[in-house]
Design a protein that fits this description.
It is found in: Cell membrane. By secondary structure, the chain is α/β, with parallel strands linked by helices. The chain contains 11 helices and 13 strands.
C-alpha cells in the first residue's frame, strides 16, 4: 500500500508568556496508507490535535518532517489544500447563511460546480434542511454540515478532529456509518477521538498517544490480542451456593450487587462448569477491548 501521509520525528513546543515551555509533540512518527482509516487516540493534552494541525498545515512544526500526498503541508500549498478536507474540533460557519448557501460558498472557494452542493447534501443527509440557517441546526446536523464542508472539494485525504463529540448515541452511530461510507469511496481518513468504541468500529489502525509521544500503534484487534487480558464472566449470585463459588476460587472472584464475576483465562472451561451448575441465567461475558489497551498504555489517573 502506498503512503498518503508520512510523518517523521515531528516536534512542537509552545512557549506561553510567563509560563514554562510546553513540549506538546515529542518525536512522533507514523505513516498512513492510501485509503486507510487511521485513528489517533489519547487523553486530554496528549498532543493529538497539535499533531493533526501540523499534518494539515495549520501549525508549523519545530522539527521533523511531514508529507501529505507527497508534499509538505508547510508552508501553505494551494495545490495540496485543494486535495485535502479538514473538519475542525469546533464548528465555525459563516453567520446568517443557510445550509445551501454555506456549501455554495465553500464550493466556490474550491472551484467546484453547483452540482457538487446537491451531491454533498445527499451524502450527509441534509437535503431536507437545505434552506435552514446553520445556527438553527441540531448538534448532529451541524456536525454533518461540518463534514460536508470538508468534503465539498472532493478531497483525497480527510482529517476529522473528534467528529462525534457531544453527539447522542444514535447520532454518533449514524455518523459512524456516514464516515465508513466516505472511506469506502477510497478516501484516506485520519481521525482523533476519545471514544474507544468509535476507533474500534472505524479504524484500520490506531496510534495511542500520551505526553506528546506514540506509545502503541497497530490495528485495534492486534492491540487487544497483544494485551493478553483475562475474560470476565458474570452470573447472578443466587444461582451458586457458597460451596460452588468456593469450588471456583482458583479464579478471580468478585461479588457485587447480587452478581458473581469471575476472571479467567480459560472462559470455555468456566462456561462448562457454570452450565453443569445450572448457573447461566443473566450470563454476561466481557473480553478485553481497545479501552483496556488504552488504559493499560496511558494509565488510569485523573487528567486535567
Amino acid at each position: 500500500m502506498d503512503s498518503a501521509i508520512e510523518v517523521a520525528d515531528l516536534r512542537k513546543t509552545f512557549r506561553p508568556r510567563n509560563a514554562p515551555p510546553v513540549e506538546a509533540v515529542r518525536g512522533v512518527g507514523f505513516s498512513v496508507g492510501e485509503g486507510e482509516f487511521f485513528g489517533i487516540l489519547g487523553p486530554n493534552g496528549a498532543g493529538k490535535t497539535t499533531t493533526l494541525e501540523m499534518i494539515e498545515g495549520i501549525l508549523e512544526p519545530d522539527g521533523g518532517r511531514v508529507a501529505v500526498l507527497g508534499r509538505s503541508p508547510w508552508p501553505h500549498s494551494a495545490e495540496l489544500t485543494s486535495r485535502i478536507g479538514v473538519q475542525l474540533q469546533t464548528n465555525a460557519f459563516f453567520e446568517f447563511l443557510t445550509v445551501t448557501e454555506q456549501l455554495r460558498t465553500y464550493a466556490q472557494l474550491y472551484g467546484q460546480p453547483e452540482e457538487r452542493v446537491e451531491e454533498i447534501l445527499d451524502v450527509v443527509g441534509l437535503s431536507e434542511h437545505r434552506r435552514q440557517r446553520c445556527e438553527k441546526l441540531s448538534g448532529g446536523q451541524q456536525q454533518r454540515l461540518s463534514i460536508a464542508c470538508a468534503l465539498i472539494g472532493d478531497p483525497e485525504v480527510v482529517f476529522l478532529d473528534e467528529p462525534t463529540s457531544a453527539l447522542d448515541p444514535q447520532a454518533r452511530r449514524n455518523m459512524w456509518e456516514l464516515l465508513r461510507k466516505i472511506n469506502a469511496e477510497g478516501r484516506t481518513m485520519v481521525l482523533t477521538t476519545h471514544y474507544m468504541e468509535e476507533a474500534e468500529f472505524l479504524c484500520d489502525r490506531v496510534a495511542i498517544m500520551d505526553s506528546g509521544r506514540i506509545l502503541a500503534l497497530d490495528s485495534p484487534a492486534s492491540l487487544v490480542a497483544g494485551l493478553d487480558a483475562p475474560t470476565h464472566i458474570k452470573v447472578g449470585a443466587h444461582q451458586l451456593s457458597d460451596a460452588q463459588v468456593e469450588d471456583l476460587t482458583d479464579l478471580g472472584v468478585q461479588r457485587e450487587n447480587g452478581t458473581v464475576e469471575f476472571e479467567t483465562r480459560d472462559p470455555q472451561a468456566l462456561l462448562v462448569r457454570l452450565a453443569e451448575a445450572g448457573a447461566l441465567e443473566g450470563l454476561a461475558v466481557r473480553t478485553a477491548n481497545l479501552e483496556d489497551v488504552f488504559l493499560g498504555v496511558t494509565g488510569r489517573e485523573w487528567r486535567d
